[in-house]
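Re-run with default settings, no changes from the original entry. Doing this only to confirm the output is reproducible before filing.
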Amino acid sequence: MWFKNLRVYRLTKPFSLSAEELDEALAQKVFQPCGKQDLHSYGWVSPLGRNGKSLVHATNGYLMVCAKRQDKILPGGVVREQLEEKIAAISQAEGRNVARAEKQNLKEEIIFSLLPRALTRSQLQYAYIAPQENWVVINASSAKRAEELLGALRDVVGSLPVIPFATKQIPSQTMTSWLAKSEPPTGFTLGDECELEAPKDDGRLIRCKKQDLAAEEMLNHLKTDMVVRKLAISWQDAVECVLDHELAVRRLKFSERILDQAGDKQPETAAEEFDVDFAIMAMELRGFLEALQEAFGGLDTKARAISLADD
């Protein structure tokens, strides 16, 4: 359950639903497996999996939810091969070329015939709402997946006005300054990985791993107007990650000290273990996100709002 990537959104209005009310709302769209002709299915499941029934797990005021996405697997090569065979058969039998629109119709017929026999692949997407801090924190590596969950959440609660985590300072410029001076803010340390990008009309992109970021060669790249797009950082011996120019957190890892705290609680059941892990993770991420916010000059309250439908 420990999150590995973070996409963070700020609620622009207080989230007032209780755990019970949110559970009732999510029950409107409980996950259902793909039907015979469905390409994919999306719905809510218990964060505890087989160990729980509630669609919301509440701890210290934080509300954990979990969405499940199931996709039918249709290899493009199989569809393409069958389409080519059909096109060849029509051309040979009728002595004509197959028009583009007809090809598309044939492709759809092939997909329709294959769907009932297709294998499925499922993914779980965890997120939690922090009403005290006005955050929605999603364990997602891409904005597309995060916003899919936000959209599904909005469908059942009616309104969820959020904006992406945005700060007054431009992240790429600020991280470039940290690297140039080898002086990240108090509490932070630089890691050994970064990605540098030149101005758009230049096209240069440099990825460094296991690199001394204070080395002269790194500083020389910055002197050619390259800026930081991604930077490995750690915070207070609690978490380490790669932070990108959109303030998305990638490859998040919690330190052994934090994981040991969870283990020391000695939970007796899977539900208790989940509860302990969630409580400790949420507490550490609260401090980490507040520190990030301060490190980049505070929140940008004028950031572009997304998906404010139904407001």
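Residues 171-295 form one domain. The CA atoms of residues 192 and 211 lie 5 Å apart.
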